[in-house]
Amino acid sequence: MAGNSFGKLFNLTTYGESHGAALGGVIDGCPPGVDLDFDAIQHELDRRKPGQSAIVTQRKEPDTVKFHSGIFEGKTTGTPIGFVIENTNQKSHDYSHIKDSYRPSHADFVYDKKYGFRDYRGGGRSSARETSCRVVAGAIAKQVLKNLEITAYVSSVGTMKLNKPYSEIDLSKAEENIVRCPDIEMASQMESYIKEVRSKGDTVGGVVSCVIKNVPVGLGEPVFDKLHAELGKAMLSINAVKGFEYGSGFHGSTMYGSDHNDSFNNDGSTKTNFSGGVQGGISNGMDIYFNVAFKPVATLIQKYETIDKDGNTVEMQGKGRHDPCVVPRAVPIVEAMAALVLVDYFLINKMYS
Amino acid sequence: MAGNSFGKLFNLTTYGESHGAALGGVIDGCPPGVDLDFDAIQHELDRRKPGQSAIVTQRKEPDTVKFHSGIFEGKTTGTPIGFVIENTNQKSHDYSHIKDSYRPSHADFVYDKKYGFRDYRGGGRSSARETSCRVVAGAIAKQVLKNLEITAYVSSVGTMKLNKPYSEIDLSKAEENIVRCPDIEMASQMESYIKEVRSKGDTVGGVVSCVIKNVPVGLGEPVFDKLHAELGKAMLSINAVKGFEYGSGFHGSTMYGSDHNDSFNNDGSTKTNFSGGVQGGISNGMDIYFNVAFKPVATLIQKYETIDKDGNTVEMQGKGRHDPCVVPRAVPIVEAMAALVLVDYFLINKMYS
Amino acid sequence: MAGNSFGKLFNLTTYGESHGAALGGVIDGCPPGVDLDFDAIQHELDRRKPGQSAIVTQRKEPDTVKFHSGIFEGKTTGTPIGFVIENTNQKSHDYSHIKDSYRPSHADFVYDKKYGFRDYRGGGRSSARETSCRVVAGAIAKQVLKNLEITAYVSSVGTMKLNKPYSEIDLSKAEENIVRCPDIEMASQMESYIKEVRSKGDTVGGVVSCVIKNVPVGLGEPVFDKLHAELGKAMLSINAVKGFEYGSGFHGSTMYGSDHNDSFNNDGSTKTNFSGGVQGGISNGMDIYFNVAFKPVATLIQKYETIDKDGNTVEMQGKGRHDPCVVPRAVPIVEAMAALVLVDYFLINKMYS
Amino acid sequence: MAGNSFGKLFNLTTYGESHGAALGGVIDGCPPGVDLDFDAIQHELDRRKPGQSAIVTQRKEPDTVKFHSGIFEGKTTGTPIGFVIENTNQKSHDYSHIKDSYRPSHADFVYDKKYGFRDYRGGGRSSARETSCRVVAGAIAKQVLKNLEITAYVSSVGTMKLNKPYSEIDLSKAEENIVRCPDIEMASQMESYIKEVRSKGDTVGGVVSCVIKNVPVGLGEPVFDKLHAELGKAMLSINAVKGFEYGSGFHGSTMYGSDHNDSFNNDGSTKTNFSGGVQGGISNGMDIYFNVAFKPVATLIQKYETIDKDGNTVEMQGKGRHDPCVVPRAVPIVEAMAALVLVDYFLINKMYS
């Protein structure tokens, strides 16, 4: 109920605070006999880790994962996979100034109200550092789903927007630049923009888009657990996300049915794909694609007024090592969550076989 | 796993096909001692039912709910509440033409692929008729949550959009017109527009917005089961929904942190509310507000080509009684799903008390 | 959480009170394409129903089940199966005398304390009448599990005990007498004994044994959800059950390892079966067998003293139509619960295929 | 689904193999603000650990627990508690002889069949070493449930049985001897007996009894999740358990209702307690008591024949460090599982308040 687990058959439970001893998790329900590629898992962590480029937070964490169980002679055994990521860079003293105060648009206030007190170091459990565990599990899920291709990329930073459908973009270019935008020219402009925003101590939002290819027909359950509903929940559970749309999305709400309906080809594929690869909550074999909106990071390197826990006005000064724009590092997280949703439905679907 | 249940402590399971004997459901976990207002429950069903106005489907169904259990002398007993809504208007012969064919942008194709065969009458389980059961449960959830005010309304139909923040709108006007748009002039234009679309046998999409007031601080769980993530899943599970955004939403992704952060007042409320009433997945006591995008209904009263189950091209003619625009009837469904999400977190939150 | 659901992939939710309008349930996760034998379902209900013989309660209920959904042209569709059993014999006036009093060893007292009040008619939700819904679902589960043979029988009534291992008994004889004991002579003695007990207005306990043949290897999950642990929970959830043992059971605790270990034959079967068909929580392909102990029914047709809700001593007189011994009617319930446990693991096990 | 989690609101997930790097777990849903007594937690682990006395396995493991999260300044924070117990004594070479063979009455055979292969070192995941994680979580659960007293003890070893009701025993004596039997004379005989059994390379079963005092009225859910049903599942999930009975248990099945019914005192307590503290699945405030039967440990220090994975007969020689009788070390495990069941219902029950 406390909500630190995700997935039904392939179930991930995570734990850990930003500045505790370690973060970690347990994957229960991974099928046995999967030959794990450990470099691929670490590669995904490296794509998410702080300090990876000039436009992300400069906190130094190697984010090395250690596996404790569920793997024998390189293969999954079908028993739970326990793993740990140690925090090597616990600068608790950096955070003493926020012990008794509530930073605007952070979770400080609500944690205190819900739990009575909080681990105030670096945001504690509310830190996006928790997503490192999701990336580990997502990397394993990808290996279970080997034929599927899940590719996320940055499609906008602030008002700077890549105005092309994914089908007209060479998505493989996304990993060639530090913004993770597949349009090299746009990526370069975004990079400059992010640096400029950071130089002012400010932050900016953005959008991550994701495309999933080679999805088998039949994934998803038709009523409450529609495939896109669970994808939406997965994405909205990532820190800083404010919106989710798939297929035609919000734009689809402005269209006529006669334009929006996807006519069939004789092989069951469709001529258009406004549906976004899902009908009635179930995958139809077409590409799944969706957008995820991220708000600007709340930590500014600026002076500001806020309140302390007694309601007094206090002045604070943002400091430390923070991301000016979260979307470049969010790309592997979006992919990981997509993989977790899909692997679960993939396993559930075996019930129908 | 098959996904016909929603909620953890206040759990709804639904069943029923569009043209089966009856739909129904079970609510497990409703607190005991709630004095039920049965008229209020039926009123919610009436807001959703077909045939209620000139701009919705003319299928005639009274949608009368009968309760079988869990209620004694007008009060909930704490035991499961079983209920049934009979289908009085089962016109199976209307649907024989779709038995062997797949309508574009319907679930016919994916049901056949997933389950091997399907109840083809009126879309079977994929019909939005299923949402009547959600409305029953949502109406009871509202009564458990008595102080909360959950108000949904139509904020756009096609490209016609109500461009005002909810705080500048008298939401009580929404129920005074058949479109359920609280701006009377806009509502009138939308009504004409929907009628015009219908006269062409076409359909159009729209957006339902929702505002929740008087939410206590502390609802929601911080990681995977964030309050807005579960709200998103709930909304995306409604038939025809393509997108969900809350607070600043997609627009928020274009903003600077210095503009987007919500400064505190000394009482813990915030001066602005770009957060949309949720921080770190937990309600902060401010109004929760969100938008839900609906695609245009897929059933057109037009001739079109599609394929049959053997992949042959066939010509079909849409007929029957269908909604030209789904949003007016979606308003009570959005409210019901919001109530189901909130009541669940309300009960879970008692764990922390 | 409120516990009216059972099973993970094949999930049953039940509702209904002893003297409400109806009982019913929803089965979510039944595989599609199962050709249902409706007579077999009703037959199981008939084995459980009141009034079936001279040694059970004479309450008259046809216990006819109506299906509302999830079945099309005689086959399951993969969507939820909703069903209803109407209460035709609601004698509310029979129960007014217990409205304000607590019958010893009934649930009256704890319901009042837990929920604040209760539906006092016939025990409300605490009545074993609820098990009729389990029997419906179990009968469908049996049809999914077609090759498995699940056979329960009465092995003791009071101190009268059938002292033979099941392998030396012709289990098919159990259904040939009203006690459901497969030893005809013993059955006849048990029948006389039950009648004698009833003539004194008293009741007596008993044991139901169950054997499951043709179980595939591999059902069950090794840690918390061991196959025998879930079987145990299933049996203990039946009204009046006080104990569960499988394989060597309590007697096994008195044995030496050198006697208790089951040596392998070369085909993987074992020479003995003290394990009871389960090793480490997982079926090993040998017969599963277990015993379920039932207490004597609490309702006596005698005068007795008890307390009312204010703690005053009051005199009561048991009356109405009650079972002098519950085990003959418990046989189909034990089988139903065993089927529900097995079908769930059968479906979960597909994850490993 | 893979069953490595236990509990709904207070949820424990465990991982780890007998000879892997470490075992560990995550507790999700522990209430915030609990001042943890870490010595008490380690004390419970010490009661379970190998090598603690002359009658248990001499494997040397300190079983030291390290907490990674969910605790701040000595108090639980309400976020998940991750913990790890490292394996310091991984003698993999001890187990190479069982790599390709199936030990009788062990899980070797079923793991190979279910998962396709297995971590054969020391039984892998099927080892009772997994229960160390349950003991950690149970120790924390006990601290949440502070007023409850949960006391388990050894009531029989082989045919040697303590024939007294718990109410006539000074349970505090159980921890004063290495058998954990509260009758000192009987304990001494049991100790000699276990040593004798071990000297022959044999093993013997036994029974652990448990008493829970100060239980509030109202814990438990009335239908499938009855309090005693969940207790039964919890106990049956412990390695080597073959049976569970509560209150009058199997003996109760031989009794008359007129003897078995528990008459009320005017304060709502009962004069007798054949019910075992639970009515209709809900605690009634009387002591809960139950028995758990353990089979003899399967590993004998003897020569024996068995089969290898190709079905060939092979001769094996049991060796290593094993328990001749599991019940002394099972006592803290039984208590831990009881605590986990109770804390969960304690939290669920807040829903009704």
From TrEMBL, chains A, B, C, D:
One of its GO terms (molecular function) is chorismate synthase activity. Reduced FMN (FMNH(2)). One of its GO terms (cellular component) is cytosol. CDD domains: Chorismate_synthase. Its cofactor is FMNH2. Pathway: Metabolic intermediate biosynthesis; chorismate biosynthesis; chorismate from D-erythrose 4-phosphate and phosphoenolpyruvate: step 7/7. Keywords: Amino-acid biosynthesis, Aromatic amino acid biosynthesis, FAD, Flavoprotein, FMN, Lyase, NADP. It catalyses: 5-O-(1-carboxyvinyl)-3-phosphoshikimate = chorismate + phosphate. Gene3D superfamilies: Chorismate synthase AroC (3.60.150.10). This is Chorismate synthase. SUPFAM superfamilies: Chorismate synthase, AroC. The gene is aroC. Homotetramer. InterPro entries: Chorismate_synth, Chorismate_synth_AroC_sf, Chorismate_synthase_CS. Its EC number is 4.2.3.5. One of its GO terms (biological process) is chorismate biosynthetic process. This reaction introduces a second double bond into the aromatic ring system. Belongs to the chorismate synthase family. FMN binds at residues 125-127, 239-240, 280, 295-299, 321. It comes from Seonamhaeicola maritimus. NADP(+) binds at residue 48.
